[in-house]
């Protein structure tokens, strides 16, 4: 086996082209086995095996620096740069993250997990090289799906201004996570069909040199192309035509489904773990499809992650023109939602907490200054969400909830969510965002009759005295447990409050609490800095009320154990009760 | 005079082409007079006079909806849509804002002040039209300078997916605020030189139809072009070649200088008010130019607003390769800074507070997760900054200061600023941002010896008891006045603290304050929600310390009187002292 002997790029360079093709087969076998047991980003890595071998054959990493966009094609790179064990041996699978990471290897230059950043980052590496009078190639590898993101297009536009070496490998597998959306994909198609010869060429229109490689899964063709551009004195695009999921029939056929995969049976391609039941994704889709049928102006918007809203391929078909995928283009998604809402439409934009970060200015300017009554649903804004450092859902409260005019809401159950969503779609006064709780979806069947148009009206769900617990979103259930325990310990019923609104203070209720309470605590599912609890602390700052804010410390976590993190942040029932009791003495 | 009789687009339609040309002259005369007295965005409006007349002649506003990117070309539009008085009569000059505004007229559809949003917003208007089965044209007007922004490029890419009417007028005057930067401008030049015939065409590569108008300041040619695309069933770009500043010789010659202008003498073009002295812009440039000479790896970065960093044309020349203008592309600016810092360069990105909003995700992902030791300088983050609703500098603290790893600092004087800047450039541990104070620059000549690498160490500048005043950045001077007054009233010296750091708490010092203080107040120049003061309130929440946070209410202000706003927010010395004294009783 060649792969076992690859301890770094220098070992790749020793192989013949034929041996490299065998190596590619070995890498695919290892990738397949690992994915079937461990899960991960499947399709994009399978398409990039040969190109990665060729890159390491031609270039001298780490002196030549390769930057992989969004990192979804870094597994072959990791295999060839001293990290093969993490792909060969099950006991080492967790030695590496799913993302490029300089702490793992000198062959990685950034921690990257969001799309569309590689060209701009590479421009920075190249600029520093030139300022310091150093040599070496800088190579950005970007998938076609990432091209629709604003930062990527900005980077392509800027690149020519560098006036120095920069090689941009466009890995074109004709797919984003789902199918591609946007006019530029027509141009990529034209270029593929004309063997790169079409005069109308997006990359040339951006001032860049360009070469095309039709056989993007053939090591010899790739080596030839990369050798041609090596040490280029100006920016050049190498457009390579690859096959997503190459080498595994189910993945070649069902590209969207195999972009990312959990553990599965290699023979059949079937997932090892059964379908999950109802969740916030399916509930969102079911509700919206029904609503769309009643009202032609309702439209769901995604930025290339339709399934987080439950819109699988069949559901998208069902929604027809009432479903919009703008591609990886969160800024345009929010601006479009503002435009639709301003012209009599009812848009609902569903987005991961970690990706809503990509559109702060549009939230502020296009949406909130214009008070456009669009709805945003934030998924996975929770400590129980994704746990890679680049995909955390812990920061959306400080980012969004401090933008004027936005009404940011936190339901605690399915029923509250649907009631808020329905209210938001039908109202015409405010931009509204809804932050879905983390953990398992709770459905209590209770009818929600609350009038959400009375903004910032919290609800006392258990009336008591001494201690009041304001428990937001995810942590409402925890708050309830705390209240129960406190009531026992204090021999008095404590007060439980569901605040519903993240963006404002119910000052009337907070005033009222002063009468019979000595301590108010807040619990929220996100970092404390700039968060919900601090607003309560500020309110009570000049008074005798004691306040404790529970939530997460401001830091970047990575691949964490959620229970450990909860403990470290005093977010268990026992710790909270203990902290409160300490204050009562 | 025709202009006096124009009360809406219907009056434009009554004119002959010859009369429209006379109208154009009248409009320019009015614009020139108003600009000479009132100031405003000069160049972009002068170039768009004929195109605006032609748009209103051909289309039926407001049924047909025109969206103007960044609003810098809306003055002619306002003149033709019932707001001519604000351009004809000095006493009415302030009746209108400098930006498009639906509260002023049904012919405006959004409040817009940031660039690159028009196409995506127009896509939203068009989508709502189509969902509701309505008719009418949607027209986005975007200047060439705005094309480099990610949101604009996303919008162009998405547009073809609409499969319905959308007309994008690209107003190409071959200038951004300063000269354009980016490869796509080479393509615009090629298109201008080939009368729009070049095969390689950025817009066609995005899947869009395209027509070119060489005589972009000729009413008849424009009418012909717009008539051709009216009621188009699919998105089409109308690329018009205009002259920035047309009709006023000094502005035609010195385009950058005349992008925006204060009051000036029409005959000579000379500004009425003298040059300002030393300010944070000039100080920044002077420091950086000196530093660049000592160290070739120091590089200043701007996103199309070089002069805010003091880099006028001559200074840019002096800096040479050590000055980078990425064009209007804040995301790429931050990513590049991260890339440069990661590869041994020393980047300093200078940006307006209102525009740093455009790059939250890059701050978080590219910069802070990677702990890249780049420096950002935030200009005009202050209530004393720009006062149009789209250009406020009141929100950068909640947006930036809650991102993990970032060290956000607030100097109070020129000397502190330069010391921080120098420290930041030389250190290798943290991404650092520096928020310049508002109001007049204070230079006290004091040597700054503080070691800024000891993060979050506040400084007690006046040691006292009972009340401690933590006064951040701009408001340090106000804090000093408050302390002086309180010391008189309480007959005890109060404590004054310069916190320097926005992003963290000096818990040791705050603990210490408990011993001899009953009240701690914070004063900050920005909104309170998610801000600096709330962190202090949270810290003291469980204790007996009384805390009041002074700062601004979370809201969108527009064209405000700064003294009124300060009063409304209890930010005068008298009010603060009164509030504190009320608490001492």
Automatic annotation (TrEMBL), chains A, B:
<protein>
    <recommendedName>
        <fullName>1-deoxy-D-xylulose-5-phosphate synthase</fullName>
        <ecNumber>2.2.1.7</ecNumber>
    </recommendedName>
</protein>
<dbReference type="InterPro" id="IPR033248">
    <property type="entry name" value="Transketolase_C"/>
</dbReference>
<dbReference type="InterPro" id="IPR005475">
    <property type="entry name" value="Transketolase-like_Pyr-bd"/>
</dbReference>
<comment type="pathway">
    <text>Metabolic intermediate biosynthesis; 1-deoxy-D-xylulose 5-phosphate biosynthesis; 1-deoxy-D-xylulose 5-phosphate from D-glyceraldehyde 3-phosphate and pyruvate: step 1/1.</text>
</comment>
<dbReference type="InterPro" id="IPR005477">
    <property type="entry name" value="Dxylulose-5-P_synthase"/>
</dbReference>
<dbReference type="Pfam" id="PF02779">
    <property type="entry name" value="Transket_pyr"/>
</dbReference>
<dbReference type="InterPro" id="IPR009014">
    <property type="entry name" value="Transketo_C/PFOR_II"/>
</dbReference>
<keyword id="KW-0414">Isoprene biosynthesis</keyword>
<keyword id="KW-0460">Magnesium</keyword>
<dbReference type="InterPro" id="IPR029061">
    <property type="entry name" value="THDP-binding"/>
</dbReference>
<comment type="subunit">
    <text>Homodimer.</text>
</comment>
<dbReference type="Pfam" id="PF02780">
    <property type="entry name" value="Transketolase_C"/>
</dbReference>
<keyword id="KW-0479">Metal-binding</keyword>
<keyword id="KW-0808">Transferase</keyword>
<comment type="similarity">
    <text>Belongs to the transketolase family. DXPS subfamily.</text>
</comment>
<dbReference type="Pfam" id="PF13292">
    <property type="entry name" value="DXP_synthase_N"/>
</dbReference>
<keyword id="KW-0784">Thiamine biosynthesis</keyword>
<dbReference type="GO" id="GO:0008661">
    <property type="term" value="F:1-deoxy-D-xylulose-5-phosphate synthase activity"/>
</dbReference>
<keyword id="KW-0786">Thiamine pyrophosphate</keyword>
<feature type="domain" description="Transketolase-like pyrimidine-binding">
    <location>
        <begin position="278"/>
        <end position="444"/>
    </location>
</feature>
